[in-house]
Amino acid sequence: MSTIGDYIKKERKKAGLTQEDFAIRSGLGLRFVRELEQGKETVRLDKVNQALAMFGKEAVPGKKEE
């Protein structure tokens, strides 16, 4: 999950948003945003997609990197 968390963090910073700003704009909790960016392994996929939607993206099945 850290790959998605890294992506969210990079895009959030590029947009000039703090974690708090991002949480408010995306409708997610600040704790969730922090945990996602820190690579927490157990997060809800619907919330991940809610975060990714801020950048026009969504999580979809793909080949696992080794």
Automatic annotation (TrEMBL):
InterPro entries: Cro/C1-type_HTH, Lambda_DNA-bd_dom_sf, Tscrpt_reg_HipB-like. Pfam families: HTH_3. SMART domains: HTH_XRE (SM00530). Residues 8-47 form the HTH cro/C1-type domain. PROSITE patterns: HTH_CROC1 (PS50943). NCBIfam families: couple_hipB (TIGR03070). This is Helix-turn-helix transcriptional regulator. It comes from Blautia wexlerae.
